[in-house]
DNA sequence: CTTGCCGGGGT
DNA sequence: ACCCCGGCAAG
């Protein structure tokens, strides 16, 4: 049916968008949104009842009803008090709520895996829920954008003002729970959760006040701080390691979120059972292999107390 | 305590 | 360039 085709199209687009922007936690984003409290989407996380990880909304009371503006080029003047950006799909289902289609084993976690999708308007204090994307686009176009006439030459702006509500199967959490700690010897964590930062989706609309902070290049974390002792520049370093994007927003996103970020990241690292510090390699090195006598058998690096070149990690 | 090795010397 | 070692973090 045309309706089905349209839905597929929307879902495909959502999947593509998710690939590049959603907060992937080793391929498993679980982001919950409810209208009116989106902020800039800095989340804390907590373990859910069954031990899986999930992302919760940060407890943010400072500006409950002023979500970040979508900042499409023609709407940069919205800034505050205007509708929020379209968010990723919202998972309402619990893992046990198996309904509908079974997910392919190796589907990308971000790809829609449930049968039922609803669409919710994110326009400020609207919240209308419709069952079809086209209906929602029409709603937004008519009610909020005031474009009655040209329904088929839409520029897609409506997409920014509604969200998909994913109702049903949620295969993400069990993917999360099956995660094994990644090899900490990697110079960089393979995939890290990326904060969902609407601004980054709209490069041309980035206001000039959002000057990228000049951050010293720091390919990997070399120091660990306790959450309490973690100062803002550390947060930036962590941000770089996590997705390279934090630095850009940290200047704008405010102290509160920065504090939360600061608190979140080390906790995440801790909970994932990995240390941010470079671990000691488990390979036996010249010293151990040949012993303190037979030092002449060591590789030169070991003799010079440098990183062993013979038994690499 | 031992081990691996970075940073900082010396020649 | 080659060599050495103090000192530190990790185990």
UniProtKB/TrEMBL annotation:
Cellular compartments annotated: Nucleus
The keyword Signal is annotated on this UniProt entry: no
PROSITE patterns, per the entry: ZINC_FINGER_C2H2_1 (PS00028), ZINC_FINGER_C2H2_2 (PS50157)
Keyword flag rRNA processing: no
GO cellular component terms given for this protein: nuclear speck
SMART domains documented for this protein: c-clamp (SM01366), ZnF_C2H2 (SM00355)
Biological process, per Gene Ontology: regulation of transcription by RNA polymerase II
Residue stretches spanning the membrane: none
Gene Ontology molecular function: any one: RNA polymerase II cis-regulatory region sequence-specific DNA binding
Keywords from the named record: DNA-binding, Metal-binding, Nucleus, Transcription, Transcription regulation, Zinc, Zinc-finger
Domain C2H2-type, first and last residues per copy: 119-149
Protein name: SLC2A4 regulator
Lineage: Eukaryota, Metazoa, Chordata, Craniata, Vertebrata
